[in-house]
Each structure stands twice: as structure tokens, then as C-alpha cells.
Amino acid sequence: MSRRAVLIACLGAAAVLAIALAVLLGGDRDGSGGTPVAVPPAFVPTPPGTDGEPIADPFSYDPARRADFEARAAAGNAHVLYARSPGGATATAERVAKWRDLVERAAKRAGVDADSLEALVFLESAGREDAITPIGVEGAAGLTQIVAETGRSLLNMTIDLPRSRSYTRRIQRALRSGNSPRVQRLRAARRKVDPRFDPVQAMAGTVRYLRIAKKRFGRDELALESYHMGMGNLEDVLSAYVGGEDEVDPHEVPYAQVYFDSSPRRHPAAHAKLASLGDDSSNYLWKLHAAREIMRLHRDKPDELAVVEALQTAKNSAEEVLHPAGSQPVFANAGDVRDAYDDGDLVPLPVATSRTGLRLDPRMGELAQEASLYRGLRPEALALALYLGAQVRELSGDPAATLIMTSSVRDSSYQKRLIGRNREATRGYSLHTTGWAFDIARRYRSRAQARAFQFVLDRLTSLNVIAWVREPGAIHVTAGRDAGALSELLKASSG
Q1: How would you class 267 by CB atoms within 10 Å of its CB: exposed for 0-12, middle for 13-18, buried for 19 or more?
Q2: Are residues 262 and 276 located together in one domain of the fold?
Q3: Each residue's pLDDT tens digit in the chain (495 positions)?
Q4: Hey, how many other C-beta atoms are within 10 angstroms of the C-beta on 421?
Q5: Does residue 179 belong to any structural domain of this protein?
Q6: Based on the domain organization, do 237 and 377 belong to the same domain?
Q7: Among 245, 280, 313, which residue terminates a domain?
Q8: CATH number of residue 413's parent domain
Q9: In whole angstroms, what is the distance from residue 269 CA to residue 287 CA?
């Protein structure tokens, strides 16, 4: 392995660890002393018609592991920040860092955590004081993306929307004509009629909001989560999770518990409310933690940030963060694949659909003379696939629902043949050639099965257990090493 490959592999793992430490050491510290709502143990659904011993679900929420779940959520939700930040995460961090003095002054006056406030600026505007949502100034605008109605009704900001709209149109025309002096004059005039575009006033409005939310909810984490979700929506979610128990204060339940313990089967009312928001409101807190980590790396370890950014943007998912190039052996040819089976590094895919909830596409491995060689996975990846099959079948409410696996392990020679036939096939480093990745066909028996599959994919992503990407005909899934916690499923599938 080259020196650079070793560095990338180490930094890929270090990035996840750093996020964990950032959450553990620098995150919200209040409300961490337990929960007023008990969390009963959960088990992986057993196959229909079997009476095997239930297997404890290692990915169900455990109040004693709250910090671990928060750290996982920050790591699992980081990819979108690297993939979608304007100009990239490093460029965005540079823009956000310019506001650090303003952030610290506002945070000190209001008793708000400066790093969290800085992360909010990262998420909301990427450090651009003139950012506007696509619907225009009626929506969110400015450094902290304050919604016009919220600014006027809650934050006592005097916002003249007609004049703000007029100035915005004139600014856009001046930008198109390249008249920079005129742009600056118009922006200065707009700040006078719409204080959301004045960074000082925008920051003051945001900390005012956070103080109001902290007074209402009692905890920093809930105040921050409400900034995107809205206080009313968050109140509804918390109340739905508690279920109307008058003796329980919903504000005392950790957000990690509400998020990870809500599903279509556990606290379905809370899950339904979270899912109905449809705008990533439910994982906003985890993205704030991820943004904090990006800003920490920018300040303290910029070289490491550059490497992590390269890993996060190498593919359309975070799969190379889970397994950086050079960190896993690549199967060059059929001989390598055979040796891996002999050594136990690969295991054959089970064919008992009724037991596994998985069905193998008969075309799998069709480009090789010995197709069965290309119907296997790393033990951890197979355990993850079995978990997907079991959970989706249970959550869909359909015992006959199965996921169709279309691809599993390949070698480099097979990958080259596939590239000639499939434009979606990766030309570079493919996780299929390591045995950690598999594809599931986007063909479902029902909407219920499709929704269940989406839920499990999103939940495992927030647990930082998988990375996945939607392709035209399939969902490409890469399992992380932590999927090894599901190893008991391998025994159950062969029983």
C-alpha cells in the first residue's frame, strides 16, 4: 500500500472518530442524564413460519449509548455537506470562518454556543450574507436564512418585503450587467429595508430565536433542532413520541431517542410526523454536528479536511469514507475470488428466499463462465443485506415481500467487462471488487415495500453503517465494518 493510500485510509477512519469526539466533548451537554420514556429492547424480525431464537437488534436505540448514536448520526449525515456545499466544504468553511468574530460576539451576549452558531451559518447560507431561497425574499434570506414571517412576527424585525423584492430584482440586473459598484449600493440599500441581509442584525435575530426556543424547550439541542423544523412542528413530534402521557414532560426526552426510536412500528405517530416534514428537518441536528466538525478541521487540521473532502466526494455516496481506496484488498481475477471463499473472506449468498427476504436475480454473474463465483459477499456485507431483507419485510407488512439482489462481489476483470455494457459501472475503484457492496433492484411489490426500504436505508445511513446511492435500475449499497454486529444473522439464514 502506498504512503498516500495509508494516509487516506487513516484519515477516513480518523474523520469518523473526530466527529465522535467533537460530539462527545464539544456538543450539547444538557439533558444527558437519562430519559423519562423507557426504550424496550428490539429484535431483528424472524422469518415467517420459523421459531428461531430472536436476535437482538444492535442498531436499536439504547439510552445508555446516546452519545454513540449522536456521533454516528453526525458521521452518517456528513456526506451531503461535502457534496452540496457551494464550491465544496473547504470553500464553504473559508466563507463561514470570516464571520467567526461576529459569531463569537453574538454567542457571548446571548449565552449560545459559538461553535453551534457557526455550524448553523454553515448549513443555512454557506457563509453568504446575500443567500436567498428559490421562492424569493418571502422565504428565507440572509446569513442565517430567517424566514420573512418569522422575522416579523417572532423576532421583531422590520422587513419591508415589497422594497426588498424590488432591490433584489435590481441587484440581479446589475449582476448580469457586471456593474459591481451599483450592486454594492443596491445591497446596502436593501439591508436598510430588510435587516435579514445585514449580518449583524441577522445574527442578533437568530440568537433571539434560539433564546426563545431554549426557554420553551429547556435544552440547547431542541432549540437548535427547532431552528429548521420550527417550534410548533418539534412540539408536535415530541408530544407524539410521548403519546399523551400527562406525567411525562416531552421536553425531557433526548432528541436522539425520538429520532432513532421512532419507526413505522415503534412510535408510529412520531415517525409519521417526522416523515411528513419531507425537508430533512428530522436530521438537522446531526448535520449541525457534522458542520461543527468541518469547521473544527478547517481551523485545526486543514490538510485532513482536504483528504476527507476528497473521500466524501469521490463517489455519489460516502462509500469511500467507509472503505478508502487502498484500505481493502481488491480481487483482481477469478482466482482471487476463489481464494477469498476458501479463506472465509467471502461467503456465498443464501438462496432460501423465505428465510432471508432476499431473492437473487438469475442474471447475477452472467458475464462469467462460472456465475456462482460472483454470488457472494464479505460476511459483514451479507449480514447487512439479511438485515435489510428482514426489516423491509416486517415494516412493509407483507410476508412475501422480498428484495431482489442483482449484483454482489466482482473482480477487476469482471468489472472491466461490465463497463463495456453498463455506463453506470464504475470506471475506477469499485467497492464491488472488495466484496463490501451489492445492488438491490428498484422493483417492489408495493409502495409499502418501497417506503419500508427507504426508511431502513435512511436509518442505517444515520447510524453510519452504510452508504448508498440511487442508480437508474438499482440501489447500490456499501456496508461498513460496523455491519459485523449483525453476524448472528448469518447463522440464522443457514439454519
Answers
A1: buried
A2: yes
A3: 343 444 454 454 444 444 443 433 333 444 445 788 999 999 999 876 666 788 999 999 999 999 999 999 999 999 999 999 999 999 999 999 999 999 999 999 888 899 999 999 999 999 999 999 999 999 999 999 999 999 999 999 999 999 999 999 999 999 999 999 999 999 999 999 999 999 999 999 999 999 999 999 999 999 999 999 999 999 999 999 999 777 889 999 999 999 999 999 999 999 999 999 977 899 999 999 999 999 999 999 999 999 999 999 999 999 999 999 999 999 999 999 999 999 999 999 998 888 899 999 999 999 998 999 999 999 999 999 999 999 999 999 999 899 999 999 999 999 998 887 777 778 789 999 999 999 999 999 999 999 999 999 999 999 999 999 999 999 999 999 999 999 999 987 665
A4: 8
A5: no
A6: no
A7: 313
A8: 3.30.1380
A9: 24
Name the grid cell of 172. 440581479
The domain boundary, picked from 313, 338, 369, lies at 313
Residues 254 and 340 occupy one common structural domain? no
The single-letter DSSP state of residue 51 is -
Q: What pTM, to 2 d.p., does this model score?
A: 0.91
Please give the span between the terminal C-alpha atoms of the chain, in angstroms, as a whole number.
Answer: 39
108 in a structural domain: yes
Residue 364 domain boundaries: 319-493
Would 163 be classed as within a structural domain?
no
User: 44 has which bridge partners?
Assistant: 55
